[in-house]
Design brief:
This protein has about 180 residues and is mainly α. It contains 8 helices and no strands. The relative contact order is 0.17.
């Protein structure tokens, strides 16, 4: 498999971890993934998160009632939330993506996890030489980014970059999500 595609998948997963609520083993996951990512600003944000991240700081900004919502539906007041969730569920189901977290399907960490999952799928179908499957994965990834992730990640990244603490560095990294892939 392509080393560049695997590094891309690691970058997606790392960014996803940085936006998960801290849990047991979270810092270790971040450190391990940061070692696989060649993107210096993302690795730097990961080191800061591993040192400073805490559940309390996360919840103060991204928790229920916090000043920044980690959910896509909050960034599209003109769209039906059920439609957004249904479209995400359809994409996830079509590719066999089952997030392990407790977060809703439109949570930024879940969506970034799906981006990484699609990068792994792309690497796999390329290694298999399956042009039809590759076209399907690439089309789905483009649709997912255009309709869901890119506008949402940019807006959320701006809000987090203005926050205090470790999440500000994550916000700056999130604003560059368009560089991944």
């Amino acid at each position: 498999m392509s080393a560049s595609l695997l590094a891309e998948a690691a970058a997606w997963r790392l960014l996803s971890c940085l936006l998960e609520r801290p849990r047991q083993g979270w810092r270790e996951d971040i450190r391990a993934l940061a070692a696989e990512v060649p993107d210096a600003p993302l690795a730097s944000a990961a080191r800061r998160v591993a040192e400073e991240g805490s559940e309390g700081a996360y919840l103060a900004v991204l928790g229920p009632g916090g000043p920044v919502s980690p959910r896509e539906v909050a960034y599209h007041p003109d769209r039906d939330p059920a439609t957004i969730l249904a479209r995400l569920h359809t994409l996830y189901h079509a590719f066999g993506f089952r997030p392990a977290s407790e977060d809703p399907p439109d949570h930024i960490a879940v969506e970034l996890g799906f981006g990484g999952f699609l990068a792994l799928k792309r690497a796999w179908v390329i290694s298999q030489g399956d042009e039809t499957a590759l076209a399907t994965v690439e089309s789905a990834a483009e649709l997912f980014r255009r309709e869901h992730l890119d506008p949402f990640a940019a807006a959320l990244g701006q809000r987090l970059a203005a926050a205090d603490g470790y999440l500000a560095s994550v916000g700056r990294a999130l604003q560059t999500v368009s560089r991944i892939g």
